[in-house]
Write a structure and sequence with these properties.
Layout lengths: L1 H7 L16 E2 L4 E2 L1 H7 L8 E3 L2 H4 L3 E2 L4 E10 L18 H24 L11 H9 L14 H30 L10 H5 L6 E4 L3 H7 L4 H9 L1 E2 L2 H7 L5 E5 H7 L6 E17 L6 H14 L1 H11 L14 H37 L3 H45 L1
Parallel strand pairs: 6-7, 6-8
Antiparallel strand pairs: 1-2, 3-9, 4-9, 5-8, 5-9
Helix pairs in contact: 4-5, 4-6, 4-14, 6-14, 14-15
Length: about 425
């Protein structure tokens, strides 16, 4: 208004609207309140920024729009030290990631054992048993190497890919845990107005006689109507004061961003819903409309509106950093793809190791290549089967010997 007054050379007197209301229609008697009532009663000639909607346009005129906004909601979370959570260290990842991580440990340990067992360059089966492989793979999460590593190149390559995966996962976990401890936003997992309606942890409110309340109550979307029906606040300050107690306030994004730009514990979620435009309100057929519209067009071309937006809403915001969220499966799906790539490449390396060992056998002993290959594969299969039977027999023998020893000791004791 000040800039318009300077550029168009007029003076003005600012009149505060009753109860600081922008303007809402009482359906029963078709009367308005707030700035629109003053405009209709000829108490004012111009309003400050108003959201444009169909009902208002039936009673007053608007200038061309100079700003766009949408519905958002805000919530203030308690500080991290107020939580009594003993398992806070699990929060950076969702339960799906924790479950799949344990599953991947078993899968990688199995393939490391398999590669060490089938490779012609692997040591005896006991050296890299599944137990030893499981220990080697698991210790990667605490940045410790296992006591034993596979000897063949195929197994070592797979272990290298696993350690690369662990390094990235550990970095993601550490970064998110640090962010959670300094600014805990992870527990608030609501991103849309419909989600807000279908949960029972938080109460919410919409400010009466504002454009967002009118758009939601008149919408064909039942969720919007339900939000308005179950949560109405008479004044903006009433809604702002309630968020101290975990209350969710729904209003236009720009209004919330301006009122909470210095509140580092406030979460403001854009919904990409109920978009609307701002303009100045005028009486019907006002002679000032065309003059102001031409001036607004000049301001838009000069980028003045964008500059003022940054100055009023974002320039002096002191809370840096994005809202922290818990990592979910889609985020780490690319890393799981890396593990699949490592398994496939390690199996191809196993084939190459076998082919190379077959080539060496043919050079040393003579004979056709594929005949040497068949003998090597058959020999490896027999070796694995023999080791398995030997291990099983040894386990059964140990049990038997222990039983006899116990019996003998018992007889001697008696």
């Amino acid at each position: 208004i000040e800039k318009l007054a300077r550029d168009l050379k007029f003076t003005y007197t600012y009149v505060r609207a009753p109860l600081d209301k922008y303007g809402g229609l009482t359906v029963e008697n078709k009367t308005w309140n707030g700035m629109i009532k003053d405009l209709l009663d000829d108490k004012t000639d111009l309003t400050i920024a108003l959201s444009i909607n169909y009902i208002r346009s039936q009673y007053i005129d608007f200038t061309s729009s100079f700003f766009e906004s949408e519905a958002s909601f805000v919530l203030r979370l308690p500080r991290p030290e107020s939580y009594g959570r003993q398992l806070f260290f699990l929060l950076p990842f969702r339960i799906g990631i924790w479950a799949t991580l344990f599953a991947w440990i078993a899968v990688i340990a199995f393939f490391v054992t398999l590669l060490s067992k089938l490779s012609p360059y692997g040591k005896p089966h006991e050296y890299m048993s599944f137990y030893n492989s499981l220990w080697t793979v698991s210790t990667g999460f605490v940045q410790q190497g296992g006591e034993r590593v596979p000897r063949p190149l195929s197994g070592r390559f797979l272990l290298f890919i696993w350690w690369l995966f662990v390094m990235i996962i550990a970095s993601m976990y550490t970064a998110n845990l640090t962010a959670f401890l300094t600014n805990d936003m992870t527990q608030f997992d609501i991103h849309s107005l419909s989600q807000l309606l279908h949960q029972h942890e938080y109460k919410w409110g919409v400010i009466a006689d504002r454009n967002i309340e009118a758009m939601m109550s008149q919408s064909s979307n039942k969720d919007y109507q339900g939000l308005v029906k179950e949560g109405i606040n008479k004044h903006k300050q009433e809604g702002i004061s309630k968020i101290q107690d975990g209350f969710v306030l729904i209003d236009e994004h720009s209004v919330l961003q301006h009122n909470f730009k210095h509140d580092c514990q406030a979460i403001i979620r854009k919904t990409n819903e109920l978009s609307n435009e701002w303009a100045l309100g005028l009486p019907k057929n006002s002679p000032y409309a065309n003059v102001i519209n031409r001036q607004f067009l000049e301001y838009r071309e000069q980028g003045w509106f964008t500059k003022k937006w940054e100055e009023w809403y974002t320039s002096d915001r002191k809370c840096a950093g994005p809202v922290v969220g818990r990592f979910s499966l889609p985020i780490v799906s690319g890393l799981y793809g890396l593990l699949l790539f490592g398994i496939i490449c390690s199996l191809l390396l196993l084939v190459l190791e076998t082919l190379y060992a077959t080539y060496v056998d043919c050079r040393r002993n003579g004979g056709a290549f594929w005949e040497c290959f068949r003998k090597r594969v058959t020999g490896k299969r027999k070796q694995v089967r023999k080791e398995w039977l030997k291990r099983r027999a040894a386990n059964n023998g140990d049990i038997g010997n222990s039983y006899v020893g116990i019996e003998g000791n018992s007889a001697e004791h008696q």
